[in-house]
Amino acid sequence: MITRVLCVLSMLLAAEFCLAQTDSSKSGVPAEIPVLDVNAIDKTADPCLDFYQYACGTWMKNNPIPTDKSRWGRFDQLAEHNRYILRDILDQAEVPGTHSPIETMVGNYYASCMDESTIEKKGAAPLAPQMEKIAAISNKTDLIRQIASMHRVGTSALFNFYSQPDMHDSNETLANLDQGGISLPDRDYYLKDDPKSVETRQKYVEHVQKMFELAGDKPEAAAAEAKTILAIETGLAKTSMDRTLRRDPKNRDHKMTVTQITGDAPNFDLNLYFAENGSPKFTSLNVVNPEFFKQVNEQIASTSLDEWKTYLRWKTINEYAPMLSKAFVDEDFAFNGKYMSGQQEIEPRWKRCVTSTDGDLGFALGKLYVDRTFGAEGKERTLKMVKAIESAMREDIGSLSWMSDETKKKAYEKLTAIVNNIGYPDVWRDYSSVVIKRDDYAGNVERASAFEVHRDLAKIDRPTDRKDWGMTPPTVNAYYRSSMNDINFPAGILQPPFYSNSMDDAANFGGIGVVIGHELTHGFDDQGRKYDADGNLRDWWTADDAREFEKRADCTANEYSSFVSVKDDNGEVKLNGRLTLGENTADNGGLKLAYMALMHIIGDTPVKPIDGYTPQQRFFLSFGQIWCQNVTDQQARRLAIVDPHSPGRWRVNGVVQNSAAFEKAFGCKAGQPMVAENACRVW
Ligand SMILES: [Zn+2]
Question: Is the pTM of this model over 0.90?
Answer without folding.
Answer: yes
